[in-house]
User: What shape does this take?
Amino acid sequence: MKKNITYIIFLVVTFITANTHAQTEGVKGYTIEGDEVVFSFDKSDYQKATTDNHGSILDFEDLDIKNVVVSGEFNNWSKNKWRMTKVDENRFELRKKLSDFTDEFSWEFKFVINNAYWAEPSKSISNTVQAYKQGHALPTYNLKMYTAYPDEEGNVTFTLNGYETARKVVLSGSFNKWDEQMFVMVKTNDCWVLTLKISPGEYQYKFIVDGTWIIDPDNPQKSRNEFNGFNSVINIKGMAKFLLDGFLDAQEVILSGSFNDWSENEYKMTRTQSGWADTLMLTGGKHHYKYIVDKRWILDPNNPVREYDYNGNVNSVCMVK
Assistant: This one.
């Protein structure tokens, strides 16, 4: 395989479309759909539960499930706050906006039955980690949630050419808090490969080949790390669609913003039957913009989200996430 990283558009910003893809087998407890995290509890995925007071282990068959709560680092392990909705006899669901979570996250969580019993995930589930309390390992496991996760229909494919004799290759980076186990790459005839679904943004990463950390030899983009070495760097972009309705009598409309240093001629918009349109691939985060209609600067009349910049100007805002 010649190319190391393949980009596939997966998110339309300004008008966000939620696309649902099944997660890779073995990843349980949640999916990410558009701008939402969907927590999913299925009784058939669990056999045991424990109690806080005595640490006694119960069989799920002995539990009459009245309610299920999502409990984790994001809500201070509350047994009451994030109550799920019953979908059918065995399944419960809870939807939360990505904006409910701070920063790029990799959170640990569990499901709580009847506000009292902690559902115990199987060690065979790929996104389980051992639980710790005050630095000491506990005889239990938590589920772990990432903004990035393996998905055959994801938007980025990582490839490591060669290393045919390696027994195991793991992809580790800032997108999964440098986890050394979860993202195991798949071996093909001439390379190792793994496709992920990742939110737009700039990330650092490395490959772990049979325990040895290496940068991506096919990616010239790299950044020095705290160990006086280097990490490979990837910038994931998202598709932003800009639509300006009306102004059909205008001779020219320019899209200008923080993403092109407020150029007044770089991005000429295309006339449509109802107005003007342009589509850009932008880095993750916040971007300010305006339209220039026949030399006259205007805000986006269809976008109510606006902010002042450092110079006191009001601009329309586009979020890529």
In short: Confidence is low (pLDDT under 50) at residues 1-25. The first strand starts at residue 5 and ends at 7. The chain is about 0% helix and 50% strand.
